[in-house]
Amino acid sequence: MRAGEGGFTHRPAHALPTYTWDHVSGITLLGDAAHLMPPSDVGANLVLLDGADLAQALVTEDTIDEAVRAYEVMMRRHWAAAAHSAAQAMARLLPDPACRRWPS
Ligand SMILES: Cc1cc2nc3c(=O)[nH]c(=O)nc-3n(C[C@H](O)[C@H](O)[C@H](O)COP(=O)(O)OP(=O)(O)OC[C@H]3O[C@@H](n4cnc5c(N)ncnc54)[C@H](O)[C@@H]3O)c2cc1C
């Protein structure tokens, strides 16, 4: 940082709360658009898992709509587990709740 050309810039980290949405035929979300995690080394892994889940559903379900519904169930299951462990990790790293803007 001392060798840098500019000064220190504080950039806040954001996360989405765990939420759900009603299925809409023909559209879905994956990756950070669906589940923006606190910075705890899981975001990119979840994106890859979403892609694998969606691909698996597309080859096993009879219709695209059924595949998207099945994907959304799998995605939410993985997301809930990751969100729980991410919240625990962030609580250890930043014990003061005032430092965390995401729900724990
Ligand atoms: C500082 C930092 C460190 C991280 N470290 C880790 C880590 O160590 N391990 C880990 O697993 N995860 C980590 N993550 C999280 C990881 O980077 C994200 O979870 C992952 O990149 C999300 O992938 P994505 O494809 O969903 O979204 P993104 O990677 O954000 O891709 C979305 C793309 O869409 C583009 N885009 C946006 N709007 C439009 C538009 N209107 N039209 C066209 N294109 C558009 C954007 O430019 C972008 O290229 C880190 C994130 C940050 C910010």
Question: What would you note in describing this structure?
Answer:
This protein is mainly alpha-helical and about 100 residues long. It has a domain at about 40-95. Helices cover about 50% and strands about 0% of the residues. The protein contains 3 helices and no strands. It is elongated, with a radius of gyration of 17 Å. The chain starts with about 30 loop residues before the first helix and ends in an 11-residue tail after the last helix. The mean pLDDT is about 85. Flavin-adenine dinucleotide binds near residues 31 and 33.
- State the shape: elongated
The largest β sheet comes out as: none
Order of helices and strands: HHH
| Strand residue content | under 5%
Given as residue ranges, the uncertain stretches (5+ residues, pLDDT < 50) are none
Give the strand tally: 0
**Taking all residues together, what is the mean pLDDT?**
85
Quickly count the helices: 3
Structural class: mainly alpha
- How far the N terminus sits from the C terminus, by CA atoms, comes to 31 Å
Instruction: Give the fraction of residues assigned to helices.
Output: 40-55%
Rg, nearest Å? 17 Å
User: Could you tell me which ligands this complex binds, including any ions or cofactors?
Assistant: flavin-adenine dinucleotide
Short account of what is shown:
This protein is an all-alpha fold and 104 residues long. It has a domain at 40-96. It contains three helices and no strands.
